[in-house]
């Protein structure tokens, strides 16, 4: 009888610790939805766009710099190596699941790559920081008393890998398909004109800038064209006026700079190497240096140099007033993120040509199957002694990387590339709606497993 009572109490406590933090985040999102709903418009969309920019340029960098900087050290970085590796593993497994979904559900051919990448790339940034912050808000949480600082540091460390993947893998995978280019181009021209007209009255969907404000300013000459496919395909059936020829671009460059060392190097390059270099030059890696990434690099540099760390971090540090100020601003990150998410959901789903079967397949693969596989990966790594011994928050963050819905950043990338814009918007809407239930369910499972076996 006593054993049964203890089991009941354990289950109730476990349920509270897993569900209540998500209910807090849900309340914040509902408030954002009510404030931004088109029927009420208590707060105009321009305010949510400004709030999104504040999160991106101020609140999120402050959060990363404060928590990561005081937690990181050379020793800790050596112990935390599995965090960025796990991001890559989760992305690879997710893409394989996406490939399986695409083969089974057979989406329209032009959305085959979209199905693969949107299943594989999850939200490893703002949403995870919000979940960790909500779970660690109470002192009697299931983890350590300093779980907020360590959890935020773990998530922040994983972000630079995610950002690198966004501006390389995701950016190129979201390239408009070459065989459907004329169709995509026609739609893209309409969308570009439409969006340019809407910039002045601030009516562009919030989803397109939710995690990348001002992304339209980052557009390049070939971002809405199948540039990579044109470079490697050597196809002559398509409009040469609409699809740039990399060979002609190279010839123009050589004529303009005939004596430059770069031209001499290009003349000696093999054709395949030259194509790869041209593609690399069109990869927007320079956009990686955004405020959150800069804050991560600064936190890593200062945190791993003891003499600098003693000046910036700590109650007795000369610059403690600065870090305290950053901590105050960081406190606005979680509510702001959830309010923006609520404002995004208030706009509702767009029309999608992806199909119900493919949409359901992505939801099941991303929100139900991938977390189960993630449990196997994390516990296998634990058995191989690859994880920090006894650190529950470390394992919880690793598990969350498999559990979150697709990154909201897909909306911005889709808009930037002019590919699957409506489909990305609709899919992200439904994923975040159903993630409320899947995150709650798996949070209960994770906490039970961590409290039982760790």
Describe the structure.
- By secondary structure, the protein is mostly helical.
- The protein folds into 2 domains: 15-220 and 288-453, Na+/H+ antiporter like fold, CATH 1.20.1530; 231-283, no CATH class.
- It is built from 20 helices and no strands.
- The chain has helices spanning 2-36, 45-71, 74-79, 82-105, 112-120, 126-135, 147-173, 181-199, 227-233, 246-256, 261-268, 271-281, 291-304, 306-312, 320-330, 333-346, 356-383, 392-400, 409-417, 421-453.
- α6 (126-135) crosses α16 (333-346).
- The radius of gyration is 23 Å and the shape is globular.
- The model is unreliable at 1-10, 182-203 and 235-243 (pLDDT under 50).
- Belongs to the major facilitator superfamily. Phosphate:H(+) symporter (TC 2.A.1.9) family.
- It comes from Helianthus annuus.
- The chain crosses the membrane at residues 15-36, 48-68, 80-104, 111-132, 152-171, 288-308, 328-346, 358-381, 393-416, 428-451.
- Pfam families: Mem_trans.
- Keywords: Auxin signaling pathway, Membrane, Transmembrane, Transmembrane helix.
